Amino acid sequence: MGLFLFLVLAAMGGMKWVIEQQKQQTEESSVIQQSSSRDETKEESSASQETTSVSTSPSVSTSAQEQPEEAIAEKIATMSLEEKVGQLFFVRVPESNQIEELQNYHFGGYLLFGRDTENETAESLKQKISDYQAASAIPLLIGMDEEGGTVTRISRNPNLTDQRFLSPQQLYAQGGWSAIEEDTAKKAEILKAYGINAGLFPVADVSTDPQSFIYDRTIGMDAQGTSAFVERVVHVLQKHHVGSTLKHFPGYGNNRDSHVAVVTDDRPLSALRETDFLPFAAGIKAGADSILVAHTIVNSIDNTVPASISKPVHELLRNELHFEGVIMTDDLDMVGLSEFIPQNEAALQALQAGNDLVISSTYQEQIPFVVQAVEDGRYLEADLNASVKRVLLWKEALHLL
After folding, report:
1. I need a surface site. Which of 45, 72, 301, 401 has the fewest CB within 10 A?
2. In this predicted model, which residue has the larger pLDDT, 10 or 373?
């Protein structure tokens, strides 16, 4: 009996030991699995972080972004003074000797008006513009005012388009923002087909008074509506690689027409900031290529000269609105400026004020005057080079260079 009991107890103790050993092994196995699981999770997390880090890196390296600027800087270093000054002139196509003039003066671009398209066929216009480009050592900006409505050039000729471009207000009434975007895309494709790379629109002026000079050329909405219009047009033009131009900074409002008179704007700067500046800010944010400055005298910014030749106006555009693209004048032959300053001095004063491009017909007087000013030190070559760089960067963005 004693021996039997001893054997039973021994057997039970052995079983208990086995059970405890199995339990210990199970716990150890569980710990190993948990540890392994944590390690795998850690590795997956690390891999995920690495993937996230790669995916959020810029798609274009800094060096790649700098390449166009470096190439343009090298190009500028090889250009003569006359070539650099010529690049700052966006010239109305002369009535004769167009090829000889652009070769002699090295224009930055040709601006076409109604007379340049009215008797053309589709093929003859393409050929004419192609000839201009072929004759120019540096590809030209080829511009045309194509706002639609009262200001259109190419669509006045039925040989060139199937119908006249409608005004922004007409388009919006027909189909809202979709109609605006579709029309802009159609314009862009037509312009590109003819070799026109800058449409000189959209009009960013805020005007809600049907009696005002600029009203019919605008979207006819308040600052918010005009901002929405400008943003959409700029985006579509960007997509089609056609240059955009916001005009007419600082904003006409309900003022008179500076084409025919010297115009003074008496609105306070606070009012301009609350309304007129907003569409320009929206266009800048959307990536507008250029801004055209009006000839109005804006007393709250500079009561001494028209905005187009006012340094404070241009400083505001650069420093407050943070615009880094091309700033250009309105046509220097307009009465709002031509009655204020002699034409031979107008381009120089415009460039000294901070413009990068001047729209000119009197280039034969103005270009030599600017060249002389650089040689005399009245217009710094560093400022000249900075403007040439902005013009060439615009051409690069339009795939011209």
Report:
1. 45
2. 373
Does position 48 have pLDDT exceeding 80, yes or no? no
Does position 135 have pLDDT exceeding 70, yes or no? yes
At residue 99, the pLDDT reads 97
Residue 13: exposed, middle, or buried by beta-carbon count in 10 A (0-12, 13-18, 19+)? Answer: exposed
Q: What is the pLDDT of residue 45?
A: 35
The superfamily (CATH) of domain 84-397 is Glycoside hydrolase, family 3, N-terminal domain (3.20.20.300)
Q: Residue for token digits 């390296």?
A: 61
**Stated pTM of the model:** 0.82
